[in-house]
Design brief:
- This protein has 4 domains: 2-190, no CATH class; 218-376; 397-445, SH3 type barrels (Roll), CATH 2.30.30; 447-535, Alpha-Beta Plaits (2-Layer Sandwich).
- The chain has a 5-stranded antiparallel sheet with strand order 9-8-7-6-10. It has a 3-stranded antiparallel sheet with strand order 1-2-3.
- The longest helix is centred in the middle third of the chain and has 37 residues, at 283-319.
- By secondary structure, the protein is of the alpha+beta class.
- It starts with a helix and ends with a strand.
- The chain contains 19 helices and 15 strands.
Length: 561
């Protein structure tokens, strides 16, 4: 046929799917070419005395795969999970060829071409006396092409089961499906440089190898057990190594947890590749194993990203020598958690699409689920945003002494939901972050100077000269002390108290923390006590004087108490 000549002359020419006639004709031509060249090469090798395939034969086998891929383009596999589409397309292509080789097909001239389909009311054609339909694709990347419909592909195993007992027509691909489905041809091609392919291709002739279970020969079940066992041993060893590494005290131990998910990330796609491309396990078992492995792969990849985010945060905090409970450390963790969360969602969406769940459905589900979570956790989200505001604006840090409404104490931790404060009574108060950002915060740790106010009570019998000298002496002490503010202090005879002459003392200390404040305050007060001792100035005790008079108005008796 002319079309067949074009395929031979131009091996890169794609299949024509512009009409039912072109699709069916192209499919038959490409499958005939793949079968004749592939089987011809295998038969030549098996009839020869050579143990191994030559380099030219390997190249020829790879070119046969192009013909197979071209024939697979006639199938509408848009509804198949991307994770299984390669191997499933190959199996369906061969199965379709087996069906067509056993049923009557009208002459090509009678099948509608592009011009006829342009005038037709319905954009599909069905092979007479069958339910095999070729239909125009109405959406997607292949819009306008005529392909074997997804429903036809879904029912193809049923069609094959009904016709496989029928005789082949002339020039049919005899035994092709049984060969590619049950013989270890994939293993033979992968190991062709190590083990002679003929050893694998003749193995199914042995009686034990022909035993079938769930449409799988015994040799394939044995191979599945070996592959899964090897994968389990590798993952188990990585888990043990991870636990050993975590027990070490060096800085690299924080990355140890990555070994667990990484081992699964390595094993799962490798297992799926071996099951599909090498073992070529049968359809039902293939779907279960492959989709399960790819699901585990994307879950493990999400796990890997999440653990890596925590390890990166810990490494940055360690390199910057930040306190693990500091606000900067919490901010680093929060930012990396948000990044890893976004990456995890993206990975899960990509994984869902690969195993056959439409991305728009996943996004819609996440949107509805996210809305439900947001409505149910409004306060939690408000606290998370509040924590983020605290970490960015930094109104205080861990270790600062703050006042917040009725709470006063030292900040011990700033978390993703709340802040914990150790009060002056040594109790621990947990305050939601949303309340903190909406409150007035008095950060006493950010004071440049700490104000000290005290009243010195002198006895009423203190002479005026001593009062003046004492006031000047206190001023001198404040001026001489290195931690006091020299431009703002007051020492004055303030008032006549109920039991004393009151000297008001007010000054500011420039100190970094509470402990230093107490130390310097003590030094100043001790100097004042020494000054009073040297000047023989006495401090008054609280006293009261009671005046008693008789009923006739005589002079009162004075009684002190």
């Amino acid at each position: 046929m002319p079309a067949h000549a074009e395929v031979d002359n131009n091996p890169l020419k794609p299949i024509d799917t512009s009409s039912p006639r072109a699709t069916l004709q192209g499919f038959i031509e490409f499958t005939n070419k793949a079968y004749s060249e592939g089987f011809g090469l295998i038969n030549t090798y098996m009839n020869s005395s050579e143990l191994y395939l030559t380099a030219e034969e390997i190249v020829a086998l790879k070119e046969v795969r192009h013909s197979q891929k071209s024939a697979e383009r006639a199938l509408d596999v848009n509804e198949l999970p991307p994770a299984t589409v390669d191997e499933t397309s190959r199996r369906l292509m061969v199965q379709m060829k087996e069906v067509l080789d056993r049923i009557d097909i009208p002459a090509m001239e009678s099948i509608p071409d592009a011009q006829m389909m342009a005038k037709a009311e319905f954009k599909y054609w069905v092979i007479p006396n069958t339910e095999i339909r070729i239909q125009r694709v109405e959406k997607g990347a292949r819009t306008g092409e005529y392909l074997f419909t997804p429903d036809t592909l879904n029912r193809l195993p049923e069609f094959y089961a009904k016709v496989k007992h029928l005789p082949y027509k002339a020039n049919a691909a005899v035994g092709w499906y049984d060969f590619v489905t049950y013989s270890p041809v994939g293993v033979a091609l992968v190991l062709h440089n190590t083990v002679p392919p003929r050893w694998f291709l003749t193995a199914p002739d042995k009686q034990p190898a022909r035993v079938m279970f769930l449409d799988q020969p015994a040799w394939r079940w044995l191979s599945i057990v070996i592959i899964l066992g090897a994968g389990f041993i590798f993952v188990r060893l990585c888990f043990r190594l991870s636990h050993y590494w975590s027990s070490r005290a060096d800085s690299s131990a924080q990355w140890a947890d990555l070994l667990c998910p990484i081992s699964l990330v390595i094993v799962t796609p490798l297992g799926a590749l071996i099951f599909g491309e090498v073992l070529r396990i049968s359809d039902g078992v293939y779907q279960v194993f492959t989709l399960s492995l790819w699901t585990l792969f994307y879950l493990s990849l999400t796990w890997t990203v999440w653990v890596a985010g925590g390890a990166i945060a810990a490494t940055v905090i360690a390199q910057e020598r930040l306190l693990t409970s500091s606000i900067d450390s919490q901010l680093i963790r929060l930012v990396l958690r948000l990044i890893t969360f976004i990456l995890a969602i993206a990975i899960l969406i990509a994984g869902a699409d690969r195993i056959g769940l439409p991305a728009y459905s996943v996004l819609a589900g996440l949107g509805v689920g996210g809305l439900a979570v947001a409505l149910a956790a409004q306060q939690t989200i408000a606290n998370l945003i509040g924590s983020l505001i605290i970490m960015i604006e930094k109104p205080f840090k861990v270790g600062d002494s703050i006042k917040l409404k009725d709470t006063e104490g030292v900040v011990e931790n700033v978390g993703f939901r709340s802040t914990r404060i150790r009060t002056l009574h040594n109790s621990l108060v947990t305050i939601p972050s949303s309340q903190i950002v909406n409150s007035t915060i008095d950060n006493m740790a950010l004071r440049d100077y700490r104000q000290i106010q005290v009243t010195l009570n002198l006895t009423y019998d203190t002479p005026i000269e001593k009062i003046k000298a004492f006031v000047d002496g206190v001023k001198h002490i404040l001026e001489a002390h290195p931690a006091t503010r020299k431009d703002n202090y007051q020492v004055f005879f303030y008032q006549f108290g109920s039991h004393s002459l009151d000297i008001a003392v007010e000054f500011f200390l420039k100190v970094p923390d509470k402990m230093t404040e107490l130390t310097e305050r003590q030094r100043i007060f001790l100097d004042i006590l020494r000054l009073a001792e040297d000047m023989k100035v006495e401090f008054a005790f609280p006293t009261q004087t009671l005046y008693i008079t008789d009923s006739v108005g005589k002079n009162p008796d004075l009684s002190d108490s």
